[in-house]
Every structure is written in structure tokens, then in C-alpha cells.
């Protein structure tokens, strides 16, 4: 099968449509449609069920999509492995970081890495945990900063742990001198992160276990904006304590919650069956405090 056809097909699924896929691939919608039709003819089965402007995977499409992701990731691995076998001194470290905690955990290491490996280009993307998992599976990044637990398809190295705390307005009536159960926050409006952030699932799972249904009044992808909304009295937010201690502005304070499951455990993950480049291995060694 033509890998370019598989790339077009997977991009249609990822982007949610042919026009969006064409934009991502820097081509025309008609070219993408033609390529996917040719792939369907080669397979001999329809891969997409087209209903209006929406397309959904058929059963055959699900099989081809899963295999295509693996083939494209394997190709990316092959290219990187051959480059290193040729003894190239230049390369690229492709990191996927979460908007929450990335600057605190990783920024101090970039200067050291650059000094040790000046020929390595560092490529960074910031996404939520769900999207980073997809990018790892598709071979688009070498390492991704994920929250535990991670799928069995990944190996990982520990990065940092921090309890998740509630951030409330300074004048809020909640106790200042002792932890409180999550149920004590049930009458407060919640401010969460955008969909795709693993921290959301952690908070909502803890709420379900505590028997409460939170009223969500706002979402954001930026911790600083969540702090601002909390300070303005819109509701309460939830962030790792280490982020709050570093970045919380005046007008908010921390309330510790007693739920043991609300632990922010960040790791650096990579595909278990994938090729891990020397550049990625050097980054992992740096974070472990090892000289290379």
C-alpha cells in the first residue's frame, strides 16, 4: 500500500473531514478525496461511511486505520534509525509536553541539553494528554509528558509527583488550616481544563467516587487564566500544588483535599515497540541526572 495514501486516510480521521485534512497536508480537498477512493478500491471495501459532511469509519476502515497508524509510525522509526546508523551528528528531539507543569519541570533542562548536544534540534509541541498519546502512537513525537496511569503500549520514566489541590478565592469560607473532603466543595462552581487534559478525568473520577456532580462553569487550557477566573470569584480550580506554589497570583489560596486518588504523577513516555533515538535517550538520561 502507498504510505502517502495511508497518511491521507489517517489525516481525514484525525482532522474530522476532507477539507481539514487537505489543509493539514497542504493539498486540495479533491486530491485527498481521490487518494482515499483509490485506497478503498485497492482494499476492495468501503473504509468510510459518508453521511452529509461527516465521515465515519466502517468496520474495514477501523482495521485499515489501526494498521495505517502502525505502518506510518514504523516508517518514521526506520528513517531515524538509518540516520543514526549513518553516523549523523545532527538530529532532532521531538518532545510533546503538557501545558500544565511543563515549564516548571523541563525548562531548566533545555539549556543544559543544548550545551551538551548543540547539533540536536529540539522540536516542542504542547497538547493535552489524550492528544499526546495519539502522537506517540503515530510516531509524531519521540517522548510525551503524560499523567499516570499510561496505556500498556508505552514505557515510561518518572518525572514528578504532586498532590492536586483546590484553588479558591482568598475570601472563600473554606477552612484555611486543615484538609477538607472533596464533598465539601460540592456547592462551588468548578473551573476545569479543556477536554483532553488528563487532570480533568482525575478530578471528575474523584467527584464520582465522592458521590457529587460538579457544576462546571468554565474551561480553559491555560493555568494562568484559571487563576484569574478563580480570583475574580467565578469558581474554584484544581491544579498540582507545585504549579500553584510557583504561579498563583494574589487573590487566591490553596485548599488541600483529602482524596488520595488526586495525585498528579507526570512521566515521560514512549512507544514500547518503537525505536527510541539517541537524542531521546540522552534527554531521559539528563532528567535522571546521568552524565552522557
Q: Helix and strand string, N-terminal first?
A: HHHEEHEHEHEEEHEHEHEEH
Please provide the count of β strands: 11
CATH topology of the largest domain: D-Maltodextrin-Binding Protein, domain 2
Q: What's the overall average pLDDT, rounded?
A: 86
Strand content: 15-25%
Radius of gyration: 22 Å
Supply the CATH class of the largest domain.
Alpha Beta
Fold and architecture overview:
This protein is α/β, with parallel strands linked by helices and 292 residues long. The protein has 3 domains: 76 residues, Arc Repressor Mutant, subunit A (Orthogonal Bundle); 100 residues, D-Maltodextrin-Binding Protein, domain 2, CATH 3.40.190; 104 residues, Periplasmic binding protein-like II (D-Maltodextrin-Binding Protein, domain 2, 3-Layer(aba) Sandwich). Helices cover 43% and strands 25% of the residues. It has 10 helices and 11 strands. The strands form 2 sheets. Strands 3, 4, 5, 6, 7, 8, 9, 10 and 11 form a 9-stranded mixed sheet that branches. Strands 1-2 form a two-stranded antiparallel sheet. Helix 1 packs across helix 4 and helix 2 packs across helix 3. It is globular and about 65 Å long. The two termini are 41 Å apart. The model has no long low-confidence stretch (mean pLDDT 86).
Amino acid at each position: 500500500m502507498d504510505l502517502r495514501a495511508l497518511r491521507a486516510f489517517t489525516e481525514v480521521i484525525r482532522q474530522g473531514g476532507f477539507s481539514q485534512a487537505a489543509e493539514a497536508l497542504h493539498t486540495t480537498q479533491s486530491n485527498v478525496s481521490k487518494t482515499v477512493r483509490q485506497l478503498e478500491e485497492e482494499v476492495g471495501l468501503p473504509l468510510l461511511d459518508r453521511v452529509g459532511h461527516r465521515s465515519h469509519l466502517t468496520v474495514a476502515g477501523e482495521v485499515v486505520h489501526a494498521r495505517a497508524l502502525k505502518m506510518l509510525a514504523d516508517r518514521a522509526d526506520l528513517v531515524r534509525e538509518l540516520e543514526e546508523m549513518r553516523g549523523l551528528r545532527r538530529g532532532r528531539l521531538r518532545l510533546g509536553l503538557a501545558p500544565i507543569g511543563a515549564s516548571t519541570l523541563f525548562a531548566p533542562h533545555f539549556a543544559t541539553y543544548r550545551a551538551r548536544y548543540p547539533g540536536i534540534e529540539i522540536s516542542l509541541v504542547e497538547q493535552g494528554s489524550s492528544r499526546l498519546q495519539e502522537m506517540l502512537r503515530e510516531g509524531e513525537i519521540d517522548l510525551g509528558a503524560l499523567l499516570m496511569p499510561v496505556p500498556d503500549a508505552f514505557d515510561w520514566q518518572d518525572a514528578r509527583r504532586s498532590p492536586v489541590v483546590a484553588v479558591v478565592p482568598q475570601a472563600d469560607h473554606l477552612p484555611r488550616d486543615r484538609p477538607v473532603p472533596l464533598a465539601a466543595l460540592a456547592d462551588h462552581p468548578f473551573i476545569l481544563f479543556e477536554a483532553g487534559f488528563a487532570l480533568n478525568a482525575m478530578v471528575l473520577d474523584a467527584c464520582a467516587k465522592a458521590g457529587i456532580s460538579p457544576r462546571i462553569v468554565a474551561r480553559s487550557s491555560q493555568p494562568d487564566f484559571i487563576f484569574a477566573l478563580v480570583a475574580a470569584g467565578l469558581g474554584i480550580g484544581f491544579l498540582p500544588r507545585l504549579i500553584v506554589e510557583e504561579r498563583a497570583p494574589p487573590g487566591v489560596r490553596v485548599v488541600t483535599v483529602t482524596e488520595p486518588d488526586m495525585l498528579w504523577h507526570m512521566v515521560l513516555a514512549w512507544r514500547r515497540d518503537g525505536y527510541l533515538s539517541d537524542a531521546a535517550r540522552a534527554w531521559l538520561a539528563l532528567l535522571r541526572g546521568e552524565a552522557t
